[in-house]
Structure formats: structure tokens, C-alpha cells
Amino acid sequence: MNQMAEVGVRLTIVNPIAESQVDLDPALRHPPAPRVADLNGKTIALYWNGKQNGPAALDAAKRLLSERFRDLTFIDVTGELGGTNRYLSPDQLDTLARDADAAICTSADCGSCTSWLIRDMCELERRGVPAVGYTAAIFDEDSRFSAKTFGVPETVPLIVPYCFSNKTPEEVEQMVADSLDGLVEGLTVDRKVAEALPEFDQIVREPAPEIVFSGGDLMDAFDAMQTRFIANGWSDGMPLIPPTHAKVEAMIAASGRDGSDVVGLFAPGMGVGTVRKVAANAVMAGCRPEAMPVIMAMMECVLEPSIGLRTWAMSTGPQAPIVLVSGDIADEIGMNRGICALGPGSISQVNVAIGRTLRLVMMNVGLSYPGISDMDTIGTPMKFSACVAENEEATPWATWREQQGFAKEESTVTVNVPYGMTEFFDFKNSDPELLVETLSTLTANTCGAPSHGAWLIKTNAPLEEGYPFHGKFGNVLLMAPDHAARFDKAGWGPERIREALHKRTKLPFRQVMLNQEYDGFRFAHPELSFLEDAPETMVNVMPSADTFEFFVVGAAAGRSQYCFGGTNSVTKAVRRV
Predict the structure, then answer these.
(1) Residue 201 needs a FRET pair 20 to 30 A away by CA distance; which of 119, 146, 517, 538 works?
(2) Geometric angle at alpha carbon 317, from 450 and 569, rounded to 5°
């Protein structure tokens, strides 16, 4: 033992950190647009992406530039697609490439809107239009990360000290005035093409296929690994299982695929996600090989464009994925579908490890790291892990997977990404109408989530392109068996419940619009302009009844959990080896 301590031991692990696509493929790199010699006589696009107080910033920029330069022409442009976060359509990008000499864009003042604004700016730069974008200082590095990801790292974030949101018009105008010289420079001084792609202090890359840690004994080496992972930002903050070659190879074998197979590109950093990288992160999360088919289906879900991974992975909002497993596979691998199914506790270890895997993959494969590409204002414990299995014995209707269009003999995985979760408590009522009335007090009053009421400011976007606020939302009620039984006894199935709930989930138009931009409403729904003159008109909070979904899970007592503000729910079949 003493001799071992002197010589030391080595802990060799599989490197779980993915390389970004843009770092591996030089063809994705594009030069910035040539700048204009000066702004006199130029046509400038004023592009608003729907973020609060953006129009005030653009109006101030227009006025101040008109005072400094002569014969300016301005084109007012609102992102054609999306909701709270709007973006330029291909047709709009082509039009601006034809008609505009330069573009001023706003606003980058949350994680996902920064990414989408920079994406639009990179597209303009690639089309020959120099662009600057108002960016709150805290999102400076986030904006540069996105510029690198989209292939034009010289794109100009115009840094202002604070977010425009929650500011008065006077405060916004002062920030615009203070940054005016930078705006002019960004549009008129040519950008030097970087010789190498930028690196970021908070993202530590490791290209080697394996990493070695040493210590006096294995515990010392284990501690060294934990310390390095925390220092490098590769940890979720809890101890990790070392992804040794033996453990990772067992996971790969359970996938039925080769370790070098590319599962997909994981946003926001477009990390190249091989089976080996996924397997290594699954081992670190505490998964055993038998869970690998579920994990691979989970990967398919988050890679489905309609779920919008890049938006919620980078958001300042507390969006966190919840994983729903339906079918025999849940019992086969030991998932908990009853009491305390969301954890914690040893009975939910399999659930917790699967949910934790998704978070680690988002970090170490998708490169979604707090402080640079995950800009969550406060965060949420749901980001550690949220995974449950359907309590099929207590489901009085067709199983969840059958409702999603799969056969009863199959097993499925669903991922939905809500903004939060709150309890639906009702021990009293057996009448389904009263149960729905109680539930509607929650569904009608979670308007702090951007998706609630978003239909009023939203223009539908193609689901297959993964754009934000794409028009299909899913608010999942994790329904307690007692509540499901009461509805079933009264002859109510999911369709009738969701229709009744949708009818009750209403608020006055004025109230739904409290945190929304009226300019966005006017752009998206001119046919509803009468509502501004009748602000107390009751309107639906959600666009349609099918935005409410019901997944039966848990044990006794009438305490369900309402997961609100969720993305499109994506379901994939589990493929057993």
C-alpha cells in the first residue's frame, strides 16, 4: 500500500467534451461585410427583433444619426417570424441585402435573443450588409460566442451598460446617445478578419480522446478529477462518476451503434455529438448500460428541430427539460413511476440519472455553459434532472405513447421544456367541472412565462426549422392518479378535459398584454386591433386546446404538478438492441 502511494495511481477517463462544428470545419467561416466609407446619403435598416423597448432605442438612433449625417434614408424592419423573440425571414434578409447599405439591430438582452439577433446579423454580414446590434454588457461574451458559432466572429455587438428591458424611454435614449460613436465606427470602419477563431475563458476545450488524473490512491485521483471538472466548468456541481473506458464501452455496446457515429450537432455551440460523447456523459450522470436505449431516444427528441434546443439552452429564462418515459422499458430498467417519481431518493435513482444525463450532454456536448452560453437569470433545480415514467396501471385512458401515435407494444421517450412547475392541489372535488375550474386558476395565471399570451404577438414559424416561439406549445399536467380516476369515473377523457380547460383559461386582453409589446401585437394581428379599444375583453391565454397535455404519474392523493410554458412536446420510440 505504501509502495502504491509512492508510485501513485492513474485514473484514465474518456474525454466527454465535444468539439464545436465551426472549430472543425473551416468552410463554415465567412468574412464580415465591407463597411461603408461614411453614412451620408446611405439607406439604413432599423431592425427590431421584438424585444421590449427596442423601438425606443431605434427611434433614438434614427433621430441622433439624422442630426449628424445628411440625406439618410431609413427602413423600419420587424422580424417577420416569431413572438417575443422575432427574427428575419430569408425573404427579409434578401430584401435588406438589396436595399440597405447598413443595419442597426436590437436587442440582445437575454440569452436566446442574443443568439438569434447575432444570427440575423451574421446572415446580413454574409450578404454584404454591415450590421451592429445593441447588446447589454452582460451578454457581450455570449454575443461573441454566437458570432463564432454562426461563422462571422467579427460581427459587431454594440455594447450598452444595461438591458433596454424595464428601462424608461429616457434611460434607453441615454444609452443610445452614449454609444453613438461606437455605432458609427462599427458601420464605417472595416473589420479586420481574425486569423484564428476566438477562444472563451469559460469554455475549456480538450481535444485529447482521454484524460488522465493521478493521485496517491484512486480516491485522490477521483478528487483530482472532480476538482478539474469544476474548475473547467464541465460539472453540474455534483460529484460525477468517472467515465472509464470500460464503463463507456459498455454504454456504447448497449446503444447498438459504433462509438464514432455522430448522433447530431447539439446547440447552442453546435458540438459534434458522437455516441461516445453521449455515453461518457451518461456514465458521469450515474446511468447503467440498460438505460442507453432511453438515452438515445432522449437525444433524438432534443435534436428534433421543432423543440428549439438553441433557444432554451441559452435563455435567461429557467426553462428546463422534463423527460417522460412510457412503456415496458421503464420497468425493465427500474424507473420509478409512483411515489416521489421526480426524486429525490434511491427509488428514483434511474430517473434522476437519465435526467441528469441530458443536462450534462447539453453542457459538455452542446457547450451550453452558465455565464457564456447559458444565461439563466436565476436558474432552477429542475435543470439538474427531471425525468419520470408513466404510471400505466393508473392511466384510465389510452397510454401516453398511444395518444402520441405509437403502438401500445412500443416504448417511447418524450421531452418537453417548461418554464416552471407548480402544484395543482384539489383534495375536495369529485365533479370534473370543479376540478377543471380549480386547475384553471393555475393555467390562467402563469402569464409570467413568455409562451402564455404569446399567440397575440406571434407570427407562426416553420416547426421544422426550430425557431423560437414556433407556435406549438405544450403545457404538461403531471396528473396524479386520484385526479385521473375522478375524471375517468365521470366519463371524461383527455380531449374533453383539455377543451374544458382551454375555455376556462382566459384573462382580460389588457392583463395578458401586461408584459408584451403592443407593437408586436399590431404587427402580428392587425385583424384584432379592436381589442385595444376593448381591453377588458376576455381572451384565451393559450392558442388552442391541444396545448394542454396529461401524463399520469405518481402515487396516492390529489396533488398533480402543472408544467407550464413548455415547448412543443417531442416523442420518439425507444430502439432496443
Answers:
(1) 119
(2) 65
Residue pair 116/311 in contact (Cβ under 8 Å)? The answer is yes
Asked which of 167, 188, 209 is the last residue of a domain, the reply is 188
CA–CA separation, 490 vs 485, rounded Å? 9
**Per the domain annotation, does 215 fall within a domain?**
no
276 phi, psi to nearest 5 deg: -65, -40
Whether residue 251 lies inside any domain: the answer is yes
Of 525, 507, 502, the closest CA to residue 448 belongs to: 507
The verdict on 179 and 226 lying in the same domain is no
Specify the pTM. Answer: 0.92
Rounded Cα distance between 561 and 559, Å, is 7
Alpha-carbon gap, residue 265 to 258, rounded angstroms: 17
**What pLDDT sits at residue 470?**
60
Same domain for 138 and 238, yes or no, is no
Structure confidence at residue 448 (pLDDT)? 63
- pLDDT at position 102 is 98
Given 146, 170, 188, the domain boundary residue is: 188
What pLDDT score was predicted for residue 4? 41
- Distance (Å, rounded) from C-alpha 451 to C-alpha 420? 12
Secondary structure string (H, E, C) spanning 313-375: HHCCCCCCCEEEEECHHHHHCCCCCCCCCCCCCHHHHHHHHHHHHHHHHHHHCCCCCECCCEC
Grid cell digits, residue 191: 473589420
Residue spans of alpha helices (H) in 424-574:
432-443, 481-489, 494-504, 509-512, 518-524
Q: For residue 167, what is its C-alpha cell?
A: 428601462
**How many angstroms separate the CA atoms of 21 and 28, rounded?**
8
Indicate the number of domains in the chain: 2
Asked if residue 146 and residue 52 are part of one domain, the reply reads yes
SS (HEC) of 106-135: EEECCHHHHHHHHHHHHHHHHCCCCEEEEE
Q: Residue 320's domain spans which residues?
A: 221-505+541-573
Is there a single domain that holds both residue 148 and residue 293?
Answer: no
Both 286 and 383 in one domain: the answer is yes
- Distance, in Å, from the CA atom of 318 to the CA atom of 13, rounded to the nearest integer, reads 32
Q: Are 129 and 47 in contact (CB under 8 A)?
A: no
Q: Whose grid coordinates read 381589442?
A: 531
Q: What does residue 161 show for φ and ψ, rounded to 5 degrees?
A: -65, -30
Retrieve residue 4's grid coordinates: 502504491
Rounded distance between C-alpha atoms, residue 484 and residue 180, angstroms: 59
Phi and psi of 507, rounded to 5°? -145, 160
271-274 and 262-266 as β-strands: parallel, antiparallel, unpaired?
antiparallel
- Please, what is the angle between helix 292-303 and helix 245-255, to 10°? 70
Nearest alpha-carbon partner for 103 in 144, 49, 142: 49
pLDDT given for residue 469 in this prediction: 58
82: helix, strand or coil: strand
Low-confidence stretches of the chain (pLDDT < 50) are 1-6
Residue 306 falls inside a structural domain: yes
- Structural domain contains residue 207: no
Give the pLDDT of residue 465. 67
User: The domain spanning residue 82 has which CATH number?
Assistant: 3.40.50.10350
Q: Cα 3 vs. chain centroid, distance in angstroms?
A: 51
